[in-house]
Amino acid sequence: MKHVRRTVFAAVAWTAAVPFGCNSERQDTTEAPSTTNPSGSTTAEPVTGGATSTGTGVDGTTGVPTTTVDDSTGGAGGQCNLFIQDCPEGQKCSAFSEDGGIFPNGTRCVPVGPNPVGPGDDCVVEGKFGDGIDNCEKGSLCLDIENDGMATCVAYCTGSMDDPECPNQDSDRCSFLFEPTVPLCFPSCDPLIQNCGPGEACVPNEAALSAPFFVCMPRVFPQAPGSYGDACIALSGCDPGNLCIFGENLPSCAGVYCCSVWCDLTANEPCAQFDPTLKCVPWFEPGQETPGYENVGICGIMQ
To answer: What does the alpha-carbon distance between residue 215 and residue 187 come to, in Å, rounded to a whole number?
Structure first.
């Protein structure tokens, strides 16, 4: 019997793509912005996390000294720790872009506004998302990646990288976004049911096959096609019921990443309607299934 390459699939803006690779350990991956047309050869640029410490700098806007992220501090580090929110009174630890880009790659202490709003509330960013300044309360982030003013506050995970928790442990799960890792809490869901709200998709909480949980994330670039076989650039860049995966695991994928379909392992040939070469690939390694999700699979090519 042939084996599946357990590499990773795709995910931009929120979390990276997920590969069908041999390594089921936490990838701490995220997607980076596309540098070409979504149908081009460099549709997305997934990257993996790791401890880094490459120097210090000063933010050109605020003059706040910053450092690069070091995961050894218990999460995305830098000037402060997102997990423990160790900034002075009246400030909060926020993920931001050290190089002025959109996607966070460091942390710093920023002022908490006079009338902050909490997780689940509508929010606004000051400047652009990568600046890390918004009107959310301490311990939360305004996740307005597209800078369109349509976002809500999302709570940072607490605890540590090895033992992350969410304020609402009954319904939320910690997810790992961007590079280096930014730990955020999203509502849990079932990919076979897609029991999320309007404009959301049920995707893995980590950009890796065998990710232990599934969470509701806003659909990224909702104007783009997102059904089976469509090119994509984000984990949540496909329609509900689909996931952005590496194109090498799908036949006739025109880009680096394309949308595939969640499938039920107990169903009879659930992927054949899309292509006869597809199989329902188990999401989890044998014996590592998260209770309640044993039947979850993704349509892919067995290699």
So the answer is: 5
Q: Cα-flanking dihedrals φ and ψ of residue 192, to 5°? A: -80, -20
For 45-82, write each residue's pLDDT tens digit. 222 222 222 222 222 222 222 333 344 333 444 689 99
Q: Could you tell me the two tokens for 266? A: 């107990």
3-class DSSP assignment, residue 118:
coil
Q: Are 92 and 138 in contact (CB under 8 A)?
A: yes
Q: Look up the pTM and report it.
A: 0.75
Q: CA geometry: angle at 96 spanning 30 and 180, to 5°? A: 30
Using CA atoms, how far apart are residues 51 and 252, in angstroms rounded to an integer? 37
DSSP 8-state class, residue 236: T
Sequence spans of domains, the chain: 50-180
Q: Is the pLDDT of residue 35 over 50?
A: no
Q: Which residue is listed with tokens 């893995």?
A: 204
CA distance 135 to 92: 11
User: Which SS3 state, helix, strand or coil, does residue 41 take?
Assistant: coil
Token reading at 47: 């990257």
